Structures are given as C-alpha cells and as structure tokens.
C-alpha cells in the first residue's frame, strides 16, 4: 500500500503527457501536478527506465514512451468498448424490440462498431463497419453536440452531403440542430439515411467528459408515432448513461451557447 501514492503520481504523469500537444519540461510537469521538483525528476527517471516516458535531450522535455504506446495498442486489441457495451445493447433490444447500434466518431463520419437486433427484423444499411456522414446520423449528431464549436467547424468545412435530400445543408443549420440536441439530451434523424426509417441516439462519455460513443435505436417510421419518441429516447439515454458509468466517465460541463 505504501506504493499507491507513487503509482497515482505515475498515472497522473501519463495522463498529463497524453493530454499535451507535445513533450513537456520537468518543471511544467511538477507545477501542473503540484509535485516537488526533486520527486518529479526521480519519478520521470524511473518511468523512463521502464519505457513509459522518454527524454528529449535537445529540448529538455519529457514525452510518452514506447511502453505507453504498447498499452494503448493493447487496449484497442482487447476491444473493451464493445465488450462493455454489448450486454447493454442486448438489454435495450429486449426492452424496445428494435435494432440497436453502437457508433463512434471517425473524423466527420459515424463508424458503427456493434449491432444487435430482434429475430426476423429488417436489415439496415448501417451495418457493423459501415461509415455514414456524421451530420446525417442521430448517433453522429449526439456526439457532435458535445464537441467544441471550433472542432465541429473544422470537421465540416463544406460542402455538405446528403443521402435522401434531408438533413443539415450548411454549418449554420448543423449548429442549430446540435444546440437543440445538446439541450434535449438526445438526437433524432427521420429518413436522413434510409427513407421510411428513423433513429434516436444518446451519447456516452469518458472520464474527461468527452463524447466516446453513441447508442442508437432505429425503427420503421410508420410503426412508432412521434408522440412516443420521448419515451423511447429515455430508454436510450438510460443505456447510454449505463455505458458512461461502465467507462468511468461523466457528462461534460455545460458549454456556452453556440
């Protein structure tokens, strides 16, 4: 147990370096983490010996080491997001009787990682591994709604694409829709991807409050009147919140109006 404080300091160094634009001087690391300079140098030296940080002598700065990269790569190999989400998606399918998907942002696109559906249900174009324009999908918009305005602007310089003639056609329209989605806590698309189908999505967050993934329910438009959509959205939001808890995350602080 005597090693726990040292372990926490090492993890804090890794998180600080991971969130920095580049390597940092030891003095900046000590200041940011409120550590004594001497302890910081000893800690960095020990971490460098195990490959978790590396020293750039020409710049007198410290950055992440190869061991940190290997751990990140192993995380991706283990597929923890999918493993944590799959049982939640299955429970949501049982609850609502519709197709449920897990998507993540991949640049300006939504990438679908998982799909669960009831038996003998219609197949959708948004299958696992498929990418769709994020501004057209409920899952994409539910995540975009929690990104800084500058990041959204960088992702969508224009022109905007569409599949069915529906959806935002400009950055101004997209921002207006995202502001409404953020206030409501869920997103909806109605025929933007496939005519006759609608989707409702809610976002899950990581430990920094950053949007990590979105859970989406997709259904035939004619089978669910609009007055029932808020109740469906509540079930989706509950599942997204459960995934956030499994990820050790939390919702972000409220952003100023876009």
TrEMBL record:
It comes from the Bacteria. GO terms for molecular function: DNA binding; DNA-binding transcription factor activity. SMART domains: HTH_ICLR (SM00346). Residues 67-249 form the IclR-ED domain. The keyword Transcription applies. It comes from Actinomadura viridis. Keywords: DNA-binding, Transcription, Transcription regulation. This is DNA-binding IclR family transcriptional regulator.
């Amino acid at each position: 147990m005597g090693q726990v404080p040292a372990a926490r300091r090492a993890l804090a160094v890794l998180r600080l370096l991971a969130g920095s634009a580049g390597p940092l001087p030891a003095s900046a690391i000590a200041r940011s983490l409120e550590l004594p300079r001497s302890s910081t140098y000893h800690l960095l030296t020990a971490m460098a010996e195990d490959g978790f940080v590396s020293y750039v002598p020409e710049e007198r700065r410290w950055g992440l080491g190869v061991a940190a990269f290997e751990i990140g790569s192993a995380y991706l190999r283990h597929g923890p997001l999918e493993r944590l989400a799959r049982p939640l998606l299955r429970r949501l399918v049982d609850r609502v009787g519709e197709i449920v998907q897990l998507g993540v942002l991949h640049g300006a696109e939504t990438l679908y990682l998982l799909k669960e559906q009831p038996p003998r249900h219609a197949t959708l174009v948004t299958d696992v591994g498929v990418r769709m324009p994020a501004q057209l999908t409920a899952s994409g918009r539910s995540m975009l709604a929690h990104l800084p305005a500058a990041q959204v602007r960088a992702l969508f310089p224009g022109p905007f694409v569409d599949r069915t003639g529906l959806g935002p056609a400009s950055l101004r329209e997209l921002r207006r829709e995202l502001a409404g989605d953020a206030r409501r806590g869920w997103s909806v698309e109605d025929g933007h991807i496939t005519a006759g189908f609608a989707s409702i999505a809610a976002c899950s967050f990581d430990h920094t409050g950053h949007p990590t993934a979105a859970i989406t329910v997709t259904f035939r438009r004619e089978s669910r009147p609009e007055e029932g959509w808020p109740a469906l959205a509540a079930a989706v939001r509950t599942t997204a919140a459960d995934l956030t808890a499994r990820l050790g995350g939390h919702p972000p602080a409220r952003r100023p109006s876009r």
